[in-house]
Fold this sequence. Notes:
The structure holds two protein chains of two kinds.
Chain A: H1 3-10, E1 13-16, E2 27-30, H2 34-40, E3 46-49, H3 54-63, E4 67-70, H4 78-87, E5 90-93, H5 98-107, E6 111-112, H6 121-124
Parallel strand pairs in A: 2-3, 2-6, 3-4, 4-5
Antiparallel strand pairs in A: 1-5
Chain B: E1 5-11, H1 21-32, H2 37-57, E2 61-67, E3 71-78, H3 86-89, H4 99-103, H5 111-118, E4 121-127, E5 131-139
Antiparallel strand pairs in B: 1-2, 2-3, 3-5, 4-5
Helix pairs in contact in B: 1-2, 2-5
Amino acid sequence: MTIQDMVRILQARVLIGHEKLDTPVYTACCSDLMSDVLAFVDEKTVLITGLTNPHVVRTSEMLDLKCLVFVRGKVPSDDILESAEEQGLVVITTKATAFSACGMLYAEGLRGVPVPLEWNTEDDA
Amino acid sequence: MNALMTNTYPVTAADYTSAGRASADIKRKLKQLGVSGDVLRRVAVASYEVELNLVIHSLGGELSLSVYPDRVQLVSSDVGPGIPDLSLAMREGWSTANDEARSLGFGAGMGLPNMKRNADDFDIQSEVGKGTVITMGFRLA
Lengths: 125, 141
């Protein structure tokens, strides 16, 4: 799907990046824990989050993410949006909760980023 | 081998607003030098993690970037407090971060292991009461 499709599915409002809505997206991740995003995401993907501090945008910058989706209708402050714009990020906001937003996108074919994770065999005993 | 470029960024303890500015500049500079793709992303992530660690855990320090024809080197050094148990600090999920850092989405105990995972070479030296030095190397393809 494209970001435009995500906007339609989530009935979202586009805050930044109207000109890039035809960007294709294949995967997404959802987290309020930027530590985890930095540790596990290694592709240009979509971040769905309820966190609206400057580090969400900075994390996106480090990872070259394509799109930020803020849930529960959250809108970050103007300076955060400005820095997102400088980076060329698309930023959208939806009234849906994180759980519902993920469910709606998954139902339409979007999938989670692959996370290589192995159980510690010592814990299995 | 002589460095093509070096730059040092002072990092202030507990300055959560500015945290990440050095790493953003490092990423920009490397991009201008033609570094791209996987290496650029790995340097950026490791740099951001180490910069956040300086802000969250140290009493202040600096982050240095050196670019050589065949590699990028990042060195973080601080003035304390030092890490009492390095093997514990390197363990995923272990964190001593405060509530402020956690409220910003950090302090999950992923920083040091994530730096090690992203760098081609990783070295950490720490002495309680003196400080911590982290050296990371990244091979340029």
